[in-house]
Amino acid sequence: MLMRGSIDPMRVTPVPDAIELLKTRRSVKPREMTGPGPSPAELETILTIGARVPDHGKLAPWRFIIFEGDGRQRAGEVIAKVFARKNPGAPAADVETERKRLTDAPLVIGIVSFTKPHPKVPAFEQELSAGASAMNIVTAATALGYGACWLTGWFSFDRDVLDGLGLKPDEKLAGLVHIGTPTKPSEDRPRPFLSEIVTRF
Ligand SMILES: Cc1cc2nc3c(=O)[nH]c(=O)nc-3n(C[C@H](O)[C@H](O)[C@H](O)COP(=O)(O)O)c2cc1C
């Protein structure tokens, strides 16, 4: 029998703060972010947590691209160039908007997903693991006190943009997680009622 206050080696220690974080977390829009972004040590923590996700078959079917400093502008150039080429009549202001896709937050992490044929692990499971990585990155950044937002957009599915960002032909972008210091409290959104999404078998 366990004595009061002793540690049960079969149980994971409850972390009430983690529950509170998960119950209240919400995204912060990149345009409502400023610097500073995470320090190098914090970034390493975020990436380590991003790589600690359920991953059937230990395939690690994801990798991360860091956009910081002028890397964010260079990525924006890639996006704007492809946009201008594919939308020749687009107003200059729209091209400029594309150029600024990554420049609001001081740090943007791209989550790249790639699947390999596997006898037991379908591609869908491997892609879900990349989604779990993205979500862990959002949660870790939030737990460190930063705002975070997982975004995609047309360019995340455009092969020419992905090539320009250095993705291989068999790689997809699961999204960009923008991370920075919130400039104002973020508004929450309505959440689904459990009564509408939960059934009991
Ligand atoms: C794969 C994926 C892509 C998303 N892309 C966008 C996007 O391009 N634009 C957007 O406004 N929200 C996008 N979202 C939604 C936001 O990440 C976020 O979930 C939402 O703004 C607020 O939800 P939250 O407060 O629970 O994080 C995306 C979500 C996911 C999972």
Tags for this entry?
201 residues; 5-stranded antiparallel β-sheet; NADH Oxidase; oxidoreductase activity; EC 1.-.-.-; alpha+beta; binds flavin mononucleotide
Kindly give the count of domains: 1
> What composes the largest sheet?
5 strands, antiparallel
Structural class, from helix and strand content? alpha+beta
Ligands, deduplicated: flavin mononucleotide
Number of strands: 5
**CATH topology descriptor:** NADH Oxidase
Uncertain ranges: none
Binding site for FMN: 25-27, 52, 56, 150-152
EC number: 1.-.-.-
InterPro entries: NAD(P)H_nitroreductase, Nitroreductase, Nitroreductase-like, YdjA-like
Organism: Bradyrhizobium cosmicum
In short:
This protein has 201 residues and is α+β, with helices and mostly antiparallel strands. It has a single domain, classed as 3-Layer(aba) Sandwich (NADH Oxidase), CATH 3.40.109.10.
What would you note in describing this structure?
The protein is α+β, with helices and mostly antiparallel strands and 201 residues long. It has a single domain (29-183), classed as NADH Oxidase. Helix content is 38%, strand content 17%. It has seven helices and five strands, in the order αβαβααβαβαβα. The protein has helices spanning 16-24, 40-50, 70-86, 92-99, 123-143, 159-164, 194-197, and strands at residues 33-34, 62-68, 107-114, 147-151, 171-182. Strands 1, 2, 3, 4 and 5 form a five-stranded antiparallel beta sheet that branches. Helix 2 runs antiparallel to helix 5. The longest helix is centred in the middle third of the chain and has 21 residues, at 123-143. The radius of gyration is 20 Å and the shape is globular. The relative contact order is 0.21. Flavin mononucleotide binds next to strand 4.
